[in-house]
Amino acid sequence: MLKVGVLGAGHLGKIHLRLLQQSDKYNLVGFYDPSKENAKNVAEEFGYTAFDSVESLIDAVEVVDIVTPTLSHFDCAKSAIEKGRHIFIEKPITKTVVEAEALKTLASQFHVLGQVGHVERFNPAFTAVKDQIENPMFIECHRLAEFNPRGTDVPVVLDLMIHDIDIILSVVKSHVKSVHASGVAVISETPDIANARIEFENGCVANLTASRISMKNMRKSRFFQKDAYISVNFLSKESEVVRMKDVPANPDEFAMILQNAEGVKKQIYFENPEVENNNAILDELESFADAIKSNTSPVVSLRQGTEALKVAQMIIDCF
What are the residue boundaries of the Gfo/Idh/MocA-like oxidoreductase N-terminal domain, all occurrences included (predicted)? Predict the structure, then answer.
């Protein structure tokens, strides 16, 4: 078991603490939170060991789980890496691309691994179909949320849209060619709703909308590729694959058949892949433990977290 400590015991930090304590791949040593009152309350309520400083916690563990506000990600991660500790760091990886690049360099220099908490990679609705997403040429994502003051210290692009940016970069095997975007600050000091169009060198286009001032929640992505349409509902954890294949010699009388202007006929097949229920946060944390044990690249590496941040920053620069 890997000795792990958590930096930050807010809403998400407490979830990480609970799951790490449950995991048989980690030995939860304790946590640090800058609020002495909150640290005392969390320690008393759940029985976790509270440390007096970031440094003392880092010294006591092998893995540091950073669940602090984005503004402090770099300093926390730098301190951990320089002590030779592996780091799991919540998304976005850091506040700036310069900081993210610096962490990549440091991790390589000190021979430690890092994983970024892009949890939607572990959403069962996505994992059920990700291997079927092949060379998508148009992608549409909607990530809408009701207003919650938590997270408003950063633009909605870094708060919500970055999830979809990471998903898109994981399935489109091409470099970003251009980005166009617009955003509006409605309640916060930074944009609360944004739309972005990402064009890739291979011709793929992704259209993303993110809002944290919606009347309803939605987390849905659609992938269009040759002879297939794949829908992923990250919220309800459901997937659908619609495929078009050549019409068989003797089609079923209830078969859905389309004919294009050239007279080519295609039969439509609907698939609803089995989606296994899971705890995505636990899965991402345990996958990092596996990567450390086997010395292999994490599912969401520091490089991938940096690439997602780069694209997010390109979007923000359009505002």
Answer: 2-118
Sign of the alpha-carbon dihedral angle for 93, 97, 101, 102 = negative
pTM over 0.85: yes
Token digits for 268?
């439509």
CATH class of 2-118+280-298: alpha beta
* Closest to 20 (Cα-Cα) out of 40, 48, 45: 48
> Sign of the CA dihedral 91, 97, 99, 103?
positive
3-state secondary structure 40-96: HHHHHHHCCCECCCHHHHHHCCCEEEECCCHHHHHHHHHHHHHCCCEEEEECCCCCC
Instruction: Tell me the pLDDT tens digit for each residue of 132-187.
Output: 999 999 999 999 999 887 766 678 999 999 999 999 999 999 999 999 999 999 99
Q: How many CA atoms lie within 13 A of 243 on its CB side?
A: 12
Cβ proximity of 100 and 41 under 8 Å: no
8 A C-beta contact, residue 67 and residue 10:
yes
